[in-house]
Specification:
By secondary structure, the chain is mainly alpha-helical. It folds into two domains: 246 residues, no CATH class; 126 residues, no CATH class. Helix content is 62%, strand content 3%. Strands 1-4 form a two-stranded antiparallel sheet. A two-stranded parallel sheet has the order 2-3. Helix 11 links the parallel strand 2 and strand 3. The termini are far apart. 39% of the residues are buried.
Amino acid sequence: MQSLLYSGVFDLSWWGAVLVALALTHVTIASVTIFLHRHQAHRALDLHPVASHFFRFWLWLTTGMVTKEWAAVHRKHHARCETPQDPHSPQVYGLNRVLWGGVFLYVREAANAQTLERYGHGTPDDWIERRLYSKHRILGIVLMGVVDMVLFGAVPGGLILLTQIAWIPFWAAGVVNGIGHYWGYRNWPARDASTNISPIGILIGGEELHNNHHAFPTSARLSSKWFEFDIGWLYIRTLQALGLAKVKHVAPTPRLAAPKANVDLDTVQAVIRHHYDVLSNYTRSLKKTCAVELGRLRRLSPEEARALKTVEPWLGKDEGMLGESRHRQLAHALRASQPLATMYAMRRELTALWSRSAITGDQLVRQLQDWCQRAEASGIAPLADFSRRLRSYA
């Protein structure tokens, strides 16, 4: 009896069972990030029917999630990010609720017929989806449990199954949606609170690079910097080499040339196309200016110096994401530093360039040319250096 409880087709040690659980859950993570997220929700790549159906089948066995529901909830998250309509924002619900109860927020939104109607378009609706995967979602998990117990024994197999069931609700619904909008580092000033949890994206298949994803949601590659690693991208390139995937979109890479004496339409289009890179560099210029201003400590009152030190870490954050207290701190810091106030005002002007739709190309060229002339005549060295780089976008 004891042998039946602890032994199956494979007689594993405890650490062997742990490795099997990690391997199986990693396949599930890869299925979520490649199939549900990058392929279905964002159309960043096309998958061969063989690969696509393997992922669908595996997710049915291990999670019972319905593709249309997952894609719809995620698309709504992007469309309504950090607002009361966001299905799972820690900025709205608090970190603890999303981290530990994110699965319940997902289930609630997945039951919203309006969400499915508006955001669930283009997902699988074939016979097997309607008759099996959507209709009998629990059956897959039951079958997976039977297989686990036959292969590894009742107790190890049951524990492996529990790990498989809990893995996605915690790591995807909790950690990515919770910590990924609360704590970490940011490469890009996206108009939300998204962060990169870790530069090494292995445990959650590359989803650790969440700020990169929110900056470029249709990119099949989630890594942006040389020090970042996205294992999901490695799998996609492997599938592509095997003829099982085709990448449609990746984040654009800026190309710089010698600075032009006068801005032209190509410059404007390049600036708009690479506006996250532009804003990221502008943030560095803001911080350089802040450092210069802090070097004037003897000419600043203790209160002014304290205000500049307070705002320095989040100077590049979108103003819409600042709370009331931070807005007050920012206003105080800008009163203490005229160069910083000038740069903040010019940042608003610059971002308006890619926010306007009812304006001609010639008008945009004139506005950017005027902006560069004023920046380089401002007497603020970091701002002038940034302007010269801006004229280099090609």
